[in-house]
TrEMBL record:
<keyword id="KW-0678">Repressor</keyword>
<feature type="compositionally biased region" description="Polar residues">
    <location>
        <begin position="502"/>
        <end position="521"/>
    </location>
</feature>
<keyword id="KW-0238">DNA-binding</keyword>
<keyword id="KW-0539">Nucleus</keyword>
<feature type="region of interest" description="Disordered">
    <location>
        <begin position="1"/>
        <end position="45"/>
    </location>
</feature>
<feature type="DNA-binding region" description="Fork-head">
    <location>
        <begin position="355"/>
        <end position="428"/>
    </location>
</feature>
<dbReference type="InterPro" id="IPR001766">
    <property type="entry name" value="Fork_head_dom"/>
</dbReference>
<dbReference type="GO" id="GO:0000978">
    <property type="term" value="F:RNA polymerase II cis-regulatory region sequence-specific DNA binding"/>
</dbReference>
<feature type="region of interest" description="Disordered">
    <location>
        <begin position="502"/>
        <end position="538"/>
    </location>
</feature>
<protein>
    <submittedName>
        <fullName>Forkhead box P4</fullName>
    </submittedName>
</protein>
<keyword id="KW-0804">Transcription</keyword>
<dbReference type="InterPro" id="IPR050998">
    <property type="entry name" value="FOXP"/>
</dbReference>
<dbReference type="InterPro" id="IPR030456">
    <property type="entry name" value="TF_fork_head_CS_2"/>
</dbReference>
<keyword id="KW-0863">Zinc-finger</keyword>
<keyword id="KW-0479">Metal-binding</keyword>
<dbReference type="GO" id="GO:0005634">
    <property type="term" value="C:nucleus"/>
</dbReference>
<dbReference type="GO" id="GO:0008270">
    <property type="term" value="F:zinc ion binding"/>
</dbReference>
Amino acid sequence: MMVESASETIRTTPSNQNGVSSLSSQSDGGGGREGGSNGDVNGEISPVDLLHLQQQQALQAARQFLLQQASGLNSPGSNEVKQSPVQVPVSMAMMSPQMITPQQMQQILSPPQLQALLQQQQALMLQQVKHTLCSKQLAFQQQLIQMQQLQQQHILNLQRQGLVPMQPTAAMQSLQQGTCTHRNHEEHTGSHPLYGHGECKWPGCEALCEDMGQFIKHLNNEHALDDRSTAQCRVQMQVVQQLEIQLAKESERLQAMMTHLHMRPSEPKPFNQPVSTSCDAYPEGLPHPPTSAATPITPLRQGPSVISSSSLHAHSHSHTHPVGPIRRRNSDKYCTPIASELAQNCEFYKNADVRPPFTYASLIRHAILESPDRQLTLNEIYNWFTRKFAYFRRNTATWKNAVRHNLSLHKCFVRVENVKGAVWTVDEVEYQKRRPPKMTGSPTLVKNMISGLGFGSLNASYQAALAESSLSLLNSPSLVTPPSAASLNMLHVGHDDVSSTVEQVNSNGSCSPTLSPQQYSHPVHVKEEPTEVEEDSRPVSLLAGVTHSLPLPSDERDLEEDLPTEELEGVTPLEAYTRVRTIYTCWENITLHIKTPSGMDTLSSSSAPPPGITLLSGIFGCLACHFIPVEKMHTGSCVYRSLGEDPFPLFPLCTRHLLF
DNA sequence: AACCTTTTAAACATAG
DNA sequence: TCTATGTTTAAAAGGT
């Protein structure tokens, strides 16, 4: 019955939205009870759990503190710290919730280490309270150092697992280079993992150094502890994490292949736990291991929040929320048919801890319509959520409450009593009523979607690029695949959706059955439902946060303003690539902005990225082999993270021009 | 600025 | 009494 149960040992309680987590904050309500039952599955809370919880508190406070630090550092007149050419809130880079989650730290660190860390964090927080203003810089630096120490621990841990092809001492030293610029251990070793073939191997550097001495000097001068270095370090860590995940997937794949071929089936390997490539790998009713709780498939699970304005000012509390700060399901606002999206990205959502870009209502509806009888019990709806989305294998109290809330609130969900109890059905008429007759989005967006010729050519080119690519990384079926196909479909269904029929049209496909609008009208009782506009009609501002919150260098602004607003119609795919004008590097997140027919403004301020953004990202990734999809955006596009050989050095907040 | 939608939280009711 | 289910209210956040 209970699907979630023991999969959550410690969860962040709802009250964490205020940045405070407490053991006693469980609710008495239905949702709270669920959470409480989770916590009580194994009886008492273990010391490790307690520590974990305290650690969350500490981290949360530290994050908030560092957020303030970041804003403070970016304020005029605050220039005590050596700044990289572009000011970066390093705290965001280093303290992003997904960087080192409590779970990860618990894995990385032994309990004594955790305790020590906790004490350190608490001490720092105390210091923060006492000296909010005058000690900002000091505490800030100490936080950085601590986080780097954590990273060292992490590297060592990976090293122990054989996942980092780096000599442990060298790894430590290379990290320490960033931390303690006065140390020159490497001078005595004669070799350095960051030095080879006369070049500095620091990501994106490639500075020529004649000898080790010169290199050390260069290292200390150019890669000292500063915003850039820490951000780059963080990126490197996530590269390693991605590779871990990839390794796990490939291993599991191998396992399955060998099993299939009757070659000595072996026991499941311990490291394949976080991933699953089977569509129904998680039997219902079993607690699913959080796909990426410990080692998130999307270490930047809150990538959108990390790079969005919301996380920078509007959501100071949202970091603690385990499900992320996304409050709007953006893409369901205008053109993503849920059936198509889910069909196309089934695997992605099953395995990646990414919030699906749909409202609860649309998801519930889809679940119900997908069922054989087009009716589901509440528990079956729960199960559908957990089965289909890794994201909903956590924080069950929260989203289950939301599901119940939606079922009750929306008129389109009709409760029908039957012999065994009650099932929920969809009153499609009511559901469709919620849709406005016309698309109310911005004219430019409508234009983008309707005149999709340019993107259409990109579709083809993207597929061609995929086919031609020799890089299996992006194309491997076992990889958490960027949901490109559905994004491509967005274009074509856009028209349909404008006429409010897209989901029905798409329901003829694999996921959703066809249905008559009248078929499921069960006016059992009447609910007062607020008129809703859902998932098809409005522009979104996915990238608005990026461009609005991250000030562009002035020259970038100029260049961007100078960009001509030519149409994409009639261009060849290769020409279309050249329309990729800018790449915003936000720490490790790289969001490709394409030149849309209506110009960058549309893309960055008032609309979701058109399908082409994923498209071009994919092309870019395939061509250059430099990017890994790390974050499924709620619009269906994907944020890519650069690999180390990124030809565009990972200068945080740096904006660079791409001309293929 | 007012209003709307969605999400989240929570209180409360009720049936088994 | 406890739990699951269902209803309702409220607040917050983001959008129109």
